[in-house]
Amino acid sequence: MKESLYRYLVKCSVAELPPEKQLFYNFIQDVEYAYEEQAETPDQYFDLLVKRHPYIEAAKHFNLPVEVARDLMLEIEQEIKRAADNRMQKVFLVDYTKQVSDFERSNKQYFFIGI
After folding, report:
1. For every residue of 64-85, which 3-state class applies, written as one string?
2. 29 Cβ contact list (under 8 Å, min separation 6)
3. Does the global pTM surpass 0.90?
4. What would the pLDDT profile of 23-54 be if each residue is shown by its tens digit?
5. Are 29 and 44 contacting, i.e. CB atoms less than 8 angstroms apart?
6. Which residue, 19, 34, 73, 98, has most beta carbons within 10 Å?
């Protein structure tokens, strides 16, 4: 569950980025996702990354030097990780399974997640 929660916190952190950083980050993510969809094997995926690295594609698309595109993406990723990690430290879970099962018979677990 922590992995799913962390992915959610990453999405929240991306949503709070300035629009230009969101656009850049999402462009690179979309390129990587397209390569995953295109490749039938991990080797094919790696070949796509080597031949047309997402940083190079982003540099062309946004008319930036490749080094600037790479540095920008690394900066954005660090910003996202820092924000998600900070939120993760503040998260708390309350298990409501027993209280809910008093009213409803189910094999499900119920949690309140405070962020």
Report:
1. CCHHHHHHHHHHHHHHHHHHHH
2. none
3. no
4. 999 999 999 999 999 999 999 999 999 999 99
5. no
6. 73
Residue 48 identity (one-letter amino acid): L
The string of pLDDT tens digits covering residues 65-96 is 999 999 999 999 999 999 999 999 998 888 88
* Phi, psi of 58, deg, nearest 5: -65, -40
Instruction: Judge whether 45 and 35 are in contact, CB under 8 Å.
Output: yes
Give strand pairing partners of 92: 114
Q: Which runs of consecutive H residues, i.e. helices, occur in the chain?
A: 2-15, 19-38, 42-51, 54-62, 66-90, 97-101
CA 54 to CA 96: how far, in whole Å?
44
